[in-house]
Every structure is written in structure tokens, then in C-alpha cells.
Amino acid sequence: xxxxxxxxxxxxxxxxxxxxxxxxxxxxxxxxxxxxxxxxxxxxxxxxxxxxxxxxxxxxxxxxxxxxxxxxxxxxxxxxxxxxxxxxxxxxxxxxxxxxxxxxxxxxxxxxxxxxxxxxxxxxxxxxxxxxxxxxxxxxxxxxxxxxxxxxxxxxxxxxxxxxxxxxxxxxxxxxxxxxxxxxxxxxxxxxxxxxxxxxxxxxxxxxxxxxxxxxxxxxxxxxxxxxxxxxxxxxxxxxxxxxxxxxxxxxxxxxxxxxxxxxxxxxxxxxxxxxxxxxxxxxxxxxxxxxxxxxxxxxxxxxxxxxxxxxxxxxxxxxxxxxxxxxxxxxxxxxxxxxxxxxxxxxxxxxxxxxxxxxxxxxxxxxxxxxxxxxxxxxxxxxxxxxxxxxxxxxxxxxxxxxxxxxxxxxxxxxxxxxxxxxxxxxxxxxxxxxxxxxxxxxxxxxxxxxxxxxxxxxxxxxxxxxxxxxxxxxxx
Length: 478
Ligand code: BG6
Fold this sequence. Notes:
Keywords: Carbohydrate metabolism, Glucose metabolism, NADP, Oxidoreductase
Number of helices: 15
Largest sheet: 9 strands, mixed
Catalytic activity: D-glucose 6-phosphate + NADP(+) = 6-phospho-D-glucono-1,5-lactone + NADPH + H(+)
Shape: globular
Oligomer: single chain
Structural class: alpha/beta
Distance between the termini: 39 Å
Helix content: 25-40%
GO cellular component, one term: cytosol
Strand order of the largest sheet: 14-13-12-11-7-10-9-8-15
Bound molecules: 6-O-phosphono-beta-D-glucopyranose
Pathway: Carbohydrate degradation; pentose phosphate pathway; D-ribulose 5-phosphate from D-glucose 6-phosphate (oxidative stage): step 1/3
Function: Catalyzes the oxidation of glucose 6-phosphate to 6-phosphogluconolactone.
Order of helices and strands: EHEHHEHEHEHEHEHHEHEEEEEEHHHHEH
Strand content: 15-25%
């Protein structure tokens, strides 16, 4: 079903994110027939170029990032015809009138700021003073949304001066991932799990977002951020919220986001002893974090694991373990909900190595759900127990085409539709920084150095210990 007619302006249209994700994503939606035939996509950036040159650039980006069988030439040509380019100086006066002229008066205008957050305020202001933004317009901003609470508040203030909260779409691309959205369906469209979804039945939750790549190529940004700011404050926090939130009364953007904010606000402060920070050292191929970020004194973490608790009725004393890092053994993102043992064991034979019931939600790769259950070991050996996985891969169950959409594709279409459910509200981002800031301050004050780990490993030993102290075990990475 095509969305309403729209004009989409991408600031930073020649940048990496636009080339890799936003423009290929729009092309997929165009091919799927979701884009109205008169939709306009207007690229804008610092460099001067003609629309024809921009189309060539976008054509090259799509050739690079979209598989050949998914980009028939006639469709690619038709898509490129939807593109224009306007050279705009984000902090000056050049280009704004030209942009105004190209936009249609009664069409939804969406401004996608795929630029440094330092430019959010300047662009928002010019969109408003040049009367380009209308009350129906939408503005989309990328992460990082601030570096701490103070800077996030300043960004919110800058945007809110010219746009209403209902017009602002703060992207966390994890919320656009199919399985992440499925968390809500799993929890709130089934009656099976919800009665067990609490401290009485759940022993603990593990959230892992492991990456196999290091930070080479974006060391400058990363070294100023580290895993806490780059991943935990946003992506892992969103996953935690979806697992821990109360059922919203309606599936509306604000009901969902109200419940997420409550989770963040209920998080207990995490003492330093429950946090393990790691940094990858020189590996076999001689890559070290220091070289990747060109800073031999860096104390920034490329790995973090922590144990936290949500101070509310549902989750009292149920630990949530979060873990994320670069250069780990494999690229795996998953949430494991580990249930408590049955209250009374009637079976005489002890099962060695029993892990217990678990619901494992695989976010990537191979999105799916596994339910670990205990059954009788087949055969004549008496009542012996074993554990099996009831495994469901979304691609197998629903078809590859349905599950292979990229997060950006879905999120951009949600913006055009005006659905804010999968975008972070201003107070949500601020609450997440308010939670993260004291931890960052504590390790900085303590002058803490991260623990070293080998590239290709599961992170520092200390992270394993964090789990062992509670008599628990991390699921293997890969
Ligand atoms: C980004 C982080 O937001 O998410 C990157 O800045 C990280 O450091 C990336 O690699 C991970 O996203 P995905 O979709 O590949 O899991």
C-alpha cells in the first residue's frame, strides 16, 4: 500500500549512512510499490553538484549495497528520476530558498538529518526561519543523540524551539529490526508468556549484542564514545525496555513510550563492581584498539558487561545482564530469558549439565526464537531427562522476503506514515542518559583502565566472573 505523497529532504545525502542505508532502503520501498509515483527525494550536502551528478552517485551506492538481482535497471532508472539535489550550507544562507522552491506546498515534508548532531540546531532553525517547515513536517535525527544528559537536553531544546515533539523522530535503528518489534508481539499478543514474565518465574535475562568487527575506520568517533555511549545507552537500553516494560494499554506511540520510560526510571544505580569494561588488545593480525583509534593512552571501552536490576514490583531481584563489544568471536545479538527451575523435582535421575527452561530471541543473524525445554531422553534407559530446543527461524516460517527488510527501510516509511512508536521520545533519551552518566563519571573518577581481551574471544575473563558470582553462565557467543 503506497504511503501518502511526500517530499523527503536528506541532509548529509552523500555521507556513509545515506549511501549504505537510507537511499538503498528507499529504493527497496520504491520497488515494493510503497512509494507514491510522485514522491520526491531531495539530497543535500555541503558540496556543489547538479542533480544528474547526485543521481549517478546514488546509482553507484545502490550498485554497491544492493544485490544485482534486487536492482533491475529499469526500476533503478525510475527511482533515480525521483531524486534531486540542492546544495545547502547548513550554517549559512546558501540553498534554503532553492530548497523552498523545489518543495511542493501541500505535501508532507520530511527532513532527515543524517549529519553531525552539532548541526541539528542550525538546520532546524533555518528550516523554520525560511518557512520551509510546516506544521505537518517531520524531522528525523540520527544517533548519537548527545554525549551525556546535558548535551541531550541541549539538542532537545534546539529541536523543540522549532518543532513539536510529535514532529521529531529520533532514530534508534535497533527498533526497526524485525525481531525487536516482534518482542512486543511475542509478549503482548500471546497469553503463554505473560503470566511467567516476572521475578517469580524468571531467574535472569541476558542481553548480548556481540560484534566481530573492530572500530577501525571510525576510531575518532568511537574513542570519544565507547561501548556504553555507543551501544548500551541506546540499543541495549531499548531491548531491555521491551523485555521489562509493562503492557501498554494501547498500541499507540505514547502508550508504548510511556511504559519504556518507566522502565528506565526504575533502573537501580549500578555500582562499579557490577560493571566490566574491556578493550581489545593486539591480536594475531596485530590489530589493537590503540592502533584503531590512534590513541595509545585510550581508556575507552570496546566491550562492556554489566549486571543491573529494575527496581519495581515485577522485576525485584531479577538480574538483567547486558553485554556488548567489538572484535568478539562472532556477530550475535540475542536476548535469553532464563526461567527458574520447577519448585519440586520428582525425577530420580539427576540431569547433568541441566541449563533449565529458556526462551532465546535471536535478533541477528538468523532471526528467530528458541524455546529450551526438558523432555525424556528417548530409549529404554528409564526416566532420564534431556534438554531440546524448539527452534523457529522467521525466515523459514515466514519467508525470506518478509524478514529481510533493513531496519532503516521500515523506519523511514514509519516517519512518512507519521507513526512514532519505534522512535525515541525526548524524555526517554534523557532518562537513559540520566541513568548512564553516573556510571561513566564513576569509572572516570576512579581512573579505571579497561580489562584487556583478545580479539576473537568472548571478552575479558572478568565478564565471565560477573556471571559466575551469581552461579550463572553466559550463553556462548557463536
Ligand atoms: C551503531 C553503532 O549504532 O550500531 C555501531 O554506532 C554498531 O558501533 C552498530 O556497530 C551495530 O548495528 P547492527 O545493526 O550492525 O547491529
